[in-house]
Amino acid sequence: MPVHTFVTQLLPMKKEDVPQDDANILEGKFKVVKYAVNENGEYEKVPSVGWEPENVALEQAWDVVHEQVDEARKKVKAGTLSTLAYHMEVNMMDAALLGKHTGLSARAVKKHLEPAEFTQLDASTLQIYADALLLSVEELKKLPV
Amino acid sequence: MTKDITVPFDHQQSAHCETGVISNLMRFHGLRVSEPMAFGIGSGLFYSHMPFLKLNGIPVTTYRILPGHIFKRFSRNIGVEMKRMSFRDQDEAMRELDRVLDQGLPVGMLTSVFYLPYLPKAFRFHFNAHNIVVFGRKGDEYLVSDPVMDETTTIHRTALIRARFAKGTPDTKGRMYYPTVVPTGPDLKKAAAKGLRRVARDMATTPLPMFGAKGIPYLAGRLRKYETKLGNRRALLFLGNLIRMQEEIGTGGAGFRFMYAAFLQEAAALLEKPELREKAKEMTRIGDLWREFAFEAGRMVKGRAEAGSTFASMADKLDVIGKAEQMFFKDLMRISK
């Protein structure tokens, strides 16, 4: 199959064609740089605020994170998981990664995701978790409103 | 207390962190190489789809060589000597950083974007291979040149420690580096020719099916079966991940293909090989094909695909791109000999 057969809507990466689809992903903080050709056919750096497909894919990835956080929140409310589980999801960690950040085994972390185990943790273990999750111990013990 | 220090560091925004750090650090040490030239000399372009290697349950697809290796190959090809360090102890890592800053030297380091508060929230996943340069210190704030940003910024010492000691894939381990020897008047021609040959060879001839240009039709074969194997939701998640790896911040567009085309243009002039200018045009067309793939994939992810767009038709597109890249790099091998 020759290269050209499916190219119905070529998106020539000319300087003026560098997409500027702003989904506020950069929060107005800065523009990223893409490489594109100018009117003389020379490549140069061109600032961009984003491109629709990138924005869509990034939103999709965040949707997955948010779903997992919501799921954890529901389970905490239902009393089947500890608040640690919720904050772990907010930090986009699993038990293994949280274990690495705390020096605890993944198995120990999994145990502490159970409400009955979590309530029995001593102050120093709570502090270790709080530090790893960028929280105070008080925040760790609660769901944010 | 340590005193404040600002190293006079000229920050230039780049598309990609590693090549941006190379270009900026080299300029500080008196060697001018553009970001695309750093990418080309460091033979950064590659392709692989590795179903056995997963991040967050999604197979890894990459358009470049391993993190850190562009810098290594660049240094080898130019004759730059680097001091590289990693640490167990956080205080020691910060003491060493302070010590090198006090000598008036900017320091490159590995960080996790999740722990860089100055970056927009949407980028902050657990990506532990982000390169930045620290070039000074004011009280508890460190001065940062993050290559993907337009201006320099600052980060609090506590946050920097966290970013330098993130766990995951990989553990960042306080890794830092700075050039100790940067040659004056190195043979850029030779270095660029070497970088060119390496990419051409690796893309055209790496034997395993998932690596090099033929990794693209390899992914096509798998993509074709995604929906039946994974179900629609996960299949779309895998597809979305392809877009992110290809287009997200750091690639300069089309999975580094445009940055590589920019290198080919520069190399054409440097090596006085006009046929490389033609190859640059060809690479631009290939980049456009990648972008068209991402465009259509984005519509599928959003549930707004054209009637004819299916995983099979997306796989067809990849097959075309794969053939184009296979031909391209075989030809580049011939030219670069």
Structural class of chain A: mainly alpha
**Helices and strands of chain B, in N-to-C order?**
EHHEEHEHEEEEHEHHHHH
Percent helix of chain B: 40-55%
Main pleated sheet of chain B:
7 strands, antiparallel
Can you tell me the residue ranges of chain A where pLDDT is under 50 for at least 5 consecutive residues? 1-11
The helical percent of chain A reads: 40-55%
User: N- to C-terminal separation of chain A?
Assistant: 57 Å
Which shape of chain A, going by the Cα principal axes?
elongated
- Structural class estimated from helices and strands of chain B: alpha+beta
Describe the structure concisely for a colleague.
The complex is a heterodimer of chains A (145) and B (337). Chain A is mainly α and 145 residues long.
Topology:
The complex is a heterodimer of chains A (145) and B (337).
Chain A: E1 32-37, E2 43-48, H1 52-77, H2 83-90, H3 95-102, H4 106-112, H5 115-118, H6 123-132, H7 137-140
Antiparallel strand pairs in A: 1-2
Helix pairs in contact in A: 1-2, 3-4
Chain B: E1 5-6, H1 17-28, H2 35-41, E2 45-55, E3 58-64, H3 69-78, E4 81-85, H4 90-102, E5 107-111, E6 130-138, E7 141-145, E8 153-156, H5 157-164, E9 176-181, H6 188-205, H7 215-247, H8 257-270, H9 274-301, H10 311-336
Antiparallel strand pairs in B: 1-6, 2-3, 4-9, 5-6, 5-9, 6-7, 7-8
Helix pairs in contact in B: 1-2, 2-3, 2-8, 3-6, 6-10, 7-9, 7-10, 8-9, 9-10
